[in-house]
């Protein structure tokens, strides 16, 4: 696996993946292409092998990292599908994945298809109030497979947008979408 860094929210894809070093946000990618599932021309599930991953605070200039935007980009050379929502764990000792906001599914039952270079987003509410707060020094993201209950690839360590997140039991995450503003609408008022 090739681990590199990039600056900001966007990664340019043109004649390869262009990366700028130095801001502590990493992307994971490799030349491995996902296997096709199903018949000829079927779109494979996205996996850690073809996705660049980052997390940014929203708004970017906020003092606390309470609202995050998780960003994945298809760094491969074929389309891939993201199913349902990311399986997020905040901190190494997290006992369960972050609950999903059910009404955030923009098109129930339909995966988000990413062409090479395209991005998808999920919004993450790190703390929803002062209930059982704890320090989280890591974010792990799992991808769901086509079948409910299945996974696609290995968990991904997401670069931290702050040294420590102060999480609580009010955490929530949205479904994948290609519209960052749509995802953020579900968490910014919480």
Automatic annotation (TrEMBL):
PROSITE patterns from the xrefs? PROKAR_LIPOPROTEIN (PS51257)
Q: Which residues form the DUF4232 domain?
A: 46-176
InterPro entries on file: DUF4232 (IPR025326)
As given in the record, the signal peptide range reads: 1-31
Highest rank taxon of the organism: Bacteria
Q: Does the keyword Signal apply?
A: yes
Q: Which UniProt keywords apply?
A: Signal
Q: What is this protein called?
A: DUF4232 domain-containing protein
Origin organism is Streptomyces achromogenes
Lineage, broadest ranks: Bacteria, Bacillati, Actinomycetota, Actinomycetes, Kitasatosporales
């Amino acid at each position: 696996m090739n681990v590199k860094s990039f600056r900001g929210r966007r990664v340019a894809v043109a004649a390869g993946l262009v990366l700028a070093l130095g801001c502590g946000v990493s992307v994971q990618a490799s030349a491995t292409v996902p296997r096709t599932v199903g018949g000829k021309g079927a779109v494979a599930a996205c996996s850690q092998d073809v996705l660049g991953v980052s997390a940014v605070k929203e708004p970017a200039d906020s003092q606390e990292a309470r609202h995050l935007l998780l960003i994945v980009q298809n760094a491969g050379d074929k389309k891939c599908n993201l199913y349902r929502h990311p399986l997020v764990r905040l901190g190494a000792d997290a006992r369960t994945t972050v609950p999903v906001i059910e009404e955030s599914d923009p098109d129930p039952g339909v995966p988000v298809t990413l062409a090479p270079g395209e991005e998808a987003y999920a919004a993450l509410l790190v703390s929803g109030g002062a209930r059982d707060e704890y320090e989280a020094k890591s974010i792990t993201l799992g991808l769901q497979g086509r079948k409910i209950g299945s996974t696609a690839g290995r968990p991904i360590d997401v670069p931290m947008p702050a040294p420590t997140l102060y999480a609580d039991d009010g955490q929530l995450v949205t479904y994948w979408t290609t519209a960052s503003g749509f995802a953020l609408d579900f968490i910014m008022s919480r």
